[in-house]
Amino acid sequence: MQKKHVLFASALGVSFLNTVLAPAYGADTPTSQSQSQSQSQSPADQPQPQPHAPSSQTVAGTAGQAAAMPAQTRAQAQAAHAQAQTGQQPASYFAGGTPPDPTQYLPPPPKPGSLRHQTDDTAFATTRGWKNDARWALAASDARLHLPDLLNSFSCAAGFTIDASKTPRLVALLRKMGSTEVPDMWKGKDYWHRARPFVGTDNAICTEEEREEIAKTGSYPSGHTMLGWSLALVLTEILPDRSTAILQRGRVFGESRIVCGVHWESDVQSGYLVGAGEVAAMHGNPAFRADLDAARAELQALRNTAPKPDAKQCEIEHDAAVHSPL
């Protein structure tokens, strides 16, 4: 499946969300290539569950309009998702159950002209001035959702380097979590089809190479934020003694989407809510709790031998936490 046929592979990072279409965290290679590669790659290197492709609704808002997803693209996405249900991809922790519906528990995005939307506008305008700063570079780094990158981004918070190649059970847990929560996130994006803040402008974003594809996907709620906050909550359970630092990093991870210029502030705040809701609901599934226990034992063992994270990177992340755009 080509990159243009997997819009969320760009919107949430080509590597991490590249297969709930084809396992919910993306690839820009055809499905057949992804399948052949997965046979020879370790779990950490395999493309992660890609969210459902957007519906045919046009992404529209005050900043402009974006093109609707072509019918052929939707058909290919649906075929890939159907293939994912054959056992080749992680199943959902909500299989046979009732997933939480973000269109019912989230408030709608701020209306144009409202005080809340003015706050969104201010945050976007202010952070455009952060281009070329260390915070901008961190936002660009946080945009990469390939699992090794995502896990490593929480190394400073954990206090040791989280190497995905040494945590197969944690990787498997996160892949299945992605397969579970990404469809719910898409439900919200398709329902509100809110335009991203940069659409209709020439304002810089930190992932310019993804600009055209990201513009085709809804902005509310933020999927990156949902996934980052979900990971933060899981790591907090696994490493409770590092909970403060981990939750702080999860907050910064979401804020990176504001700094990057691809999400409104309210998109990010809703992303935190969706991530929390999804993880809370998953705890009702015994399989999730068992997989979490396995990941806990694995990561607790790793922390005894893993190297310390890069001190300079940890300073950058700490500074980002102190200087919040919210």
Describe the structure.
- The structure is a single chain.
- By secondary structure, this protein is mainly alpha-helical.
- Helices cover 54% and strands 1% of the residues.
- The protein has 15 helices and two strands.
- It has helices at residues 7-11, 31-38, 71-88, 102-105, 115-127, 134-142, 147-152, 155-158, 168-192, 211-214, 223-238, 243-260, 265-282, 286-302, 311-322, and strands spanning 60-61, 64-65.
- Strands 1-2 form a two-stranded antiparallel sheet.
- Strand 1 (60-61) and strand 2 form a beta hairpin.
- Helix 6 (134-142) packs across helix 12 and helix 11 (223-238) crosses helix 14 (286-302).
- It is globular.
- 54% of the residues are buried.
Short structural description:
The chain has 15 helices and 2 strands. It is mostly helical and 326 residues long. A hairpin with a 2-residue loop joins strand 1 (60-61) and strand 2.
Note the main attributes of this structure.
mainly alpha, disordered N terminus, single chain, two-stranded antiparallel ribbon
Find the structural class using helix and strand composition: mainly alpha
Largest sheet: 2 strands, antiparallel
Count of separate DSSP helical elements: 15
The count of strands amounts to 2
Mean pLDDT: 80
Radius of gyration: 18 Å
Low-confidence stretches: 1-87
Report the principal-axis shape: globular
Largest beta sheet: what is the strand line-up? 1-2
Content of β-strand: under 5%
Topology overview:
Blueprint: H1 7-11, H2 31-38, E1 60-61, E2 64-65, H3 71-88, H4 102-105, H5 115-127, H6 134-142, H7 147-152, H8 155-158, H9 168-192, H10 211-214, H11 223-238, H12 243-260, H13 265-282, H14 286-302, H15 311-322
Helix pairs in contact: 6-12, 9-11, 9-13, 9-14, 11-12, 11-13, 11-14, 12-13, 12-15
